[in-house]
Amino acid sequence: MVKCAISKPLPILHKYYQSGDPVIAGIISQIYIFSDTITFKKSPTHELFDNRIYFIASWTYLASMDLLSTQGNFIPNYKCDTHNNVAAVIGGPNSDICANMATILNIYNIPQFIYGSAPGTNNKNEMPFFYRLFPSGAVQYPGILQLLLHFMWTWIGVIVQEDDNSESFVQNELPTFSQNGICFDFIGSFPKLTFTSEFTEMLEKGHDMFQVVMESTANVVIIYGEIQTIMNLRTLLYLSKFENMTLKAKVWIMTAQMDFTSVGIQRNWDIHFIHGALSFGIHGKDVPGFQTFLKIRNPTTEKGDGFIWDFWEEAFDCFFPNSEVDGLAKGPCTGEEKMETLPGTVFETSMSGHSYSIYNGVYALAHALHIMHSSKFKHRASVDKRRRDLLHQQPWQLHHFLRSFSFNNTAGETVSFDQEGQLIVGFDIINWVTFPNQSFLRVKVGRVDMKDSSNISFSIFENSIVWPSSFNQAWPFSLCNDHCHLGYSKTKKEGKPFCCYDCLPCPEGKISNQEDMDDCFQCPDEQYAANDKDFCIQKTMTFLSFEEPLGITLVVFALSLSSITALVLQIFIKHKSTPIVKANNQNLTYTLLISLLLSFLCALLFINRPERMTCLLRQVAFGVIFSVAVSCVLAKTIIVVLAFMATKPGSRMRAWVGIKLAYFIVFSCSFIQATICIVWLAISPPFPDVDMHSMTDEIVLECNEGSTVMFYCVLSFMGFLAIVSFTVAFLARKLPDNFNEAKFITFSMLVFCSVWLSFVPTSLSTKGKYTVVVEIFSILSSSTGLLGCIFCPKCFIILLKPELNSREQLIRNRH
User: Fold this and answer.
1) What mean pLDDT value characterizes the chain?
2) Which domain holds residue 783?
């Protein structure tokens, strides 16, 4: 089916072009327009070259050589007349048409305007003769990539037509898509029909390719082809009905080289498959008066235009008298049929992008000729002479004027070419909307333009897009697999493209706050991961305070135990003259009770917000006070042993028994511990610190011990004193003495050692403020063990059994 207003508007437009400056009209008569359907030459005889069947290159060569012959005599390179010289040629829309005509016309340096896809060539000698009305691929292909990225279509299919341009597209452009995160489920091709013998092969290959498309999980398919590609695609879709092939909805993305065209057999075929498709189209605009011009066109008004008669018979499915068309199945043509009654699949009354390119090309050539003539001839006698002079110009003289000039067309737009002969224009993004009556609309939903040499401007109005019906007007997804949600990261699937991946939950402490993240990341130190691992939460500041229940409980216990210790001390002072108080060194007893009292109060230094002074004092105070307490116990134990040994006749131990030895033991042990603490404070003292990592959701304010080695040295020295005391007391536990403390000291040291031996692993396994709680508990429990085991039995006798606390009872028991 010939499509005059879509990609072949020539017989209708050539006279429309003449409505203007008579000089421009004369210039237009020297412009020859080639297409894959016809080669039209406006001349007195209106010669037509039909290249429609099988797209045979020989017809293009024939038409090109005929331009170089005398009118009516096919003798290439021999022209007797000078009134029909070729000024320029417009060719298209297929690249092979342009390439074939260039083979002949380049020899004569004839300007060639390409209104379709330009032929791929690396020959720099051919480039100066081409003027591309079709926008540059440097705009279209990045535009397609931007469209895919905008809708996050990363899993796509590609169908290309087998030709040099498609091969260049696959090799040069698709790798750029991959570099930007696009994967291809398939890259299929279908043959370009050239001879009838290849039609069956094309159908077989096309069917296999179409089956791959329908079985693919990709919802988006790019089609790269030329003007006849959509006819082939419609044929494959039509034949698929007889193959019981399941048809799935796809979002077709068509390149601007394609356009809607059809043959007569496809007149009533369904076009719903392109509903919701997106295509890149050559920028077009309605030209004033074009619709009116189309309405008055009919065969009766154009007696010399044979092409419109053929078009009329094909478009309205009728025949004229004396026509070669078989009219058995058709009605007669009246010539009064209206073009606006034709469905869009047969004829579009709007000016398409290809038609608009031809329109601009014709006027660009006319203006270039006009400028060239104006620069050479300052005085003109008449319009006829002006036009006559123009006809004698050589084609190669135009090139200088065609480069880098601009003009305003009648549609109100500026038309210009750059130094390389490329029309400076962008692409429209078209959304195809079909209707049951076989008509369709091309809705402009976006635009792609060259911003500068390295950037393009891309705009899309996604709310205006109508999607294929199967997607229920929802934004289609085209992914190899579902998105990895928040809290998950991608991991590659072996043997699959990089767009295919599995989703793994983020490990503990890491999050992913975006879909499809390559890896989870750690929250900042002051934040922690939420349960779903999709965002970070601010940590709370925490420390063992007086206000919280645990802190209050420990304070109550510390104060209660210190009060009990003070009460015991008061009892002992009140009954200081009794034998049980005097036994085992009264002053050591007072010193031990005071140190235990301070030990209970020392626990309060570990509670509340850590400050510099409290951090310095609490470990030092704890170490020195406990050392005094344990050294007192050690002194008591040693005194008991020495006292028993001194009672033996002739024993030399009498000289060692006395208050001085006890003081020496307490002072020396305490001095050693104090020295360790001073060294600790000198080299690496404790300081307030912030622990960001031990607790998941809390920032722990704590006292950093500074030197851990010195801290454990303090504990080790106290442990050494406790073990010595326990050993001596254990050996002296059965000495015959009515007020022997050795067995009570044995139990107290057993409790003390058990508590502090369990403290080390417990403190290492706890985190945050609970490490402080463990240390406070160890201080209170070990001090309580000393207080209870050593002083409870004595208090029981003093308060409840005073008869046992008498000298007479002591002497009676001894005898």
Assistant:
1) 78
2) 549-814
Question: Do 578 and 719 belong to one domain?
Answer: yes
Is pLDDT at 648 greater than 70 in this prediction? Answer: no
Of 458, 499, 452, 504, the C-alpha closest to 478 is 499
Mention every residue, 6+ apart, whose C-beta is less than 8 A from residue 71.
Answer: 43, 45, 81, 84
Q: Based on the domain organization, do 128 and 170 belong to the same domain?
A: no
Residue 5 lies in a domain: no
Q: Which of 769, 640, 701, 6 is CA-nearest to residue 354?
A: 6
The pLDDT of residue 584 is 67
The strand ranges marked E within 343-439 are: 406-408, 414-416, 427-434
Residues 518, 595, single domain; the answer is: no
- Per the CB < 8 A criterion, the answer to whether 96 and 35 are in contact is no
Residues facing residue 39 across a β-bridge: 34, 49
DSSP state of 463: G
Three-state secondary-structure class, residue 702: strand
* Torsion on CA atoms 122, 126, 132, 136, rounded to nearest 10: 20
- Say yes or no: 728 and 590 in one domain: yes
Same domain, 121 and 169: no
| Domain count for the chain | 4
Give me the pLDDT at residue 1, please: 27
Q: Is the whole model's pTM more than 0.85, yes or no? A: no
Sequence-separated (6 or more) residues with CB below 8 Å from residue 645: 651, 653
Q: Taking Cα atoms as reference points, which of 246, 274, 260, 276 lies closest to residue 151?
A: 276
Q: Are 387 and 98 in contact (CB under 8 A)?
A: no
Q: For residues 550-564, give the mean pLDDT.
A: 92
Max mean pLDDT among 115-119, 231-235, 370-374, 508-512 falls in 508-512
Q: What is the pLDDT of residue 377?
A: 58
What whole-number distance in Å separates Cα of residue 96 and Cα of residue 116? 10
**Three-class SS of residue 527?**
strand
Return the structure tokens found at 371.
């400028």
pLDDT attached to residue 2: 26
- HSE at residue 305, side-chain half, CA atoms within 13 A, is 19
Does the pLDDT at position 13 exceed 50?
Answer: no
Q: Are the C-beta atoms of residues 568 and 523 closer than 8 Å to each other?
A: no
Distant-in-sequence, close-in-space partners of 571: CB < 8 Å, separation ≥ 6: 795, 798, 799
> In this structure, are strands 155-161 and 183-190 parallel, antiparallel, or unpaired?
parallel
Tell me the sheet residues that pair with 487: none
656 and 774 housed in the same domain: yes
* In a shared domain, residues 121 and 222: no
Entry field: residues in the chain: 815
Interval 348-404: pLDDT, tens:
777 888 888 888 888 888 888 877 777 765 545 444 444 455 445 667 777 777 776
Same domain, 117 and 143: no
Amino acid present at 310: D
Q: How is residue 259 written in tokens?
A: 């356009």
- Cα 599 to Cα 627: distance, rounded to the nearest angstrom: 10
Structural domain includes residue 676: yes
